[in-house]
Amino acid sequence: MNDINNEQNEDWEIERQEWLDALVSVIEERDGAHAQDLISRLELEASRRGVTHTQATLNTPYKNTVSVVEQPAYPGNIEIERRLEELLRWNAVAMVLQAYDSGSEVGGHIATYLSASTMMEVGFNHFFRGRSEEYGGDHVHFQAHTAPGIYARAFLEGRLNSNQLKNFRRELADGGGLPSYPHPRRLPWFWNMPTASMGLSTPSAIYQARFAKYLESRGLKEKNGGKVWAFIGDGESDEPEVLGTINIAARERLDNLVLIINCNLQRLDGPVRGNGKIIQELERTFRGADWHVIKVIWGGGWDALLDRDHEGILQDRMEQAVDGDYQMYTVSPGDAVREHWVEDTPALKELMKTLSDEEIRSIKRGGHDHQKIYAAYTHAQAVVGKPCVILVKTVKGEGLGQAAGRNTVHQKKYLTPDERTELAERLNIPLEAAEIRRAEFYKPAKTSIEIQ
Predict the structure, then answer these.
(1) Pairing assessment for the beta strands 388-393 and 257-263 based on DSSP bridges
(2) C-beta neighbour count of 17 within 10 angstroms
(3) Across residues 261-287, what is the average pLDDT?
(4) Total-model pTM
């Protein structure tokens, strides 16, 4: 291409557009399957004639897999669900703070559940189903560090009391307590699957899904449904046991398995891929192993901008930015984000004019958007013949104010009195000032909309 003169470039632009128009025509007049068949045949013919790809072909663009057009209507009341999440977030954080304040300083993990709460709550409210006469029942493997959020949910449901929550990580305290992580040996009436051993949650989920298929194939279990849902973190994917077992799931065609990777771009000691893109890397790995891959990257606040991005300049910038850039944006003011984001691209600067600095700063990642998560889960349930992985982009410590997205947030187990007050205000928790400073739990009345 570098050797083509300007006149030839103009001719090539016209010819290339004709090819693109032809592809669009196939999609519109026939369907995506015919377009995919055409692309595959073109790739095969190019290979036969010695034309090799210079770029990886296992990646799709850095955007949501499920388009806005394909996005189903949300069946729930998002406002009520958001309110419930506020209560869960507060009680999950309060649990860790009370454990720290007790003098033992055992603490716990605050930031992980705050990044994962929406994807977990959409699952609880609309997808995870228990066993019944008609349905085999789902098995959910929760990301270990999100345990405080699961306990907080059980508290609102009346399955746990405030004394048990107060004794988080102190199982031998008066009145009993709660273990740090999910494990049926520590809390057999609450947890079904252990998920805290480094790297073992994914192979455990794979083998559970495989065993369910084994039982069905031999008539030992009815073919009445039942998914295995497994949540892990992006940093956890570096454990050799995780990616070392995914070929088994594809080979066994485990379409009863959905793996959800919480891509908050941070591990316990810093960025997962500061100078790379962990979502794109994992997509290549899983697509190469013949998994169905769904990406949830951008929240609905980006939809209008992407729809106006006719020249692809916004998408190009999204592809160019690395995870370290996105982490910097999380902790930077809106004007600084705008300046770095648009760089020296006038067209991109013009496109971004429709957003204020505050809107740019606060625009959500896909993992904090109920509708985007719901669309991905719905899409995953329809996959047949192969396992599915959903790569969900989030912010670690979402809602923690200045601490959100910082490299130190994973280790954060204590909030100052001012930070507690700010968090309570942000989450609309109607406690007295002294109660907030003590990080007391909050549960609405039984007659409230949230509890009903």
Answers:
(1) parallel
(2) 10
(3) 93
(4) 0.90
